[in-house]
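lol ok so funny story. i was supposed to be doing the assay writeup but got distracted and ended up predicting the structure for this chain instead. priorities right. anyway since i did it might as well share w the group, maybe its usefull for someone
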Amino acid sequence: MAWPDRQSLLPLLSWLPRQTRASVGRDLLVGLSGAILALPQSIAYALIAGLPPEYGLYAAIVPVLIACLWGSSWHLICGPTAAISIVLYASVSPLAVPASEDYITLILLLTLLAGVFQWLLGMLRFGALVNFVSHSVVLGFTLGAAVVIALGQLPNLLGLELPNQATALNSLSQLLQHLGEVDRPSLLLGLGTLALGSPSSCWRRAGPDCC
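and the output, tada:
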């Protein structure tokens, strides 16, 4: 059995010698621009997962460093996502109080096991099975995650402090019971932010004719 070469173990050895001062400068600028967007976003992902905000920063920094040194793709983006965050929350919140020490321990154990299984599936070349997953399944999962995330963030939009619920339906029921306690300044601030963000997002996506 042949041993893997150095470039297989450290893919950066294949592209690092080709870097120039100009390309490094451009990479630093792109990295800074990405960090400005990714770091606040990762904090939001941590809150969705029921974790303290600093764990979002860990998840945004450590995977990028590992992917930079050992990743096989120049274009793959590594880091937390909203779908993974809500899956973590739904899996662990029935077992422990979110943001507690036991909850964090379970999250770390779950992510470690998920990483081990991903590594094994990659070694066995199971990635090709994704080609057989229906687009409808992927779309349904994405839309379901979006609905659950939106329901989970409604208390923050309305300025309500509600206990964490195990399911989205329980969260909605709890929210409807406390609609009379809505904090108007928080609601106005949230609606104003959405009003400013939606047209600009539409403009960037499809140009001036979209809106």
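The chain has a mean pLDDT of 82. The CA atoms of residues 99 and 145 lie 21 Å apart.
back to the writeup now i swear
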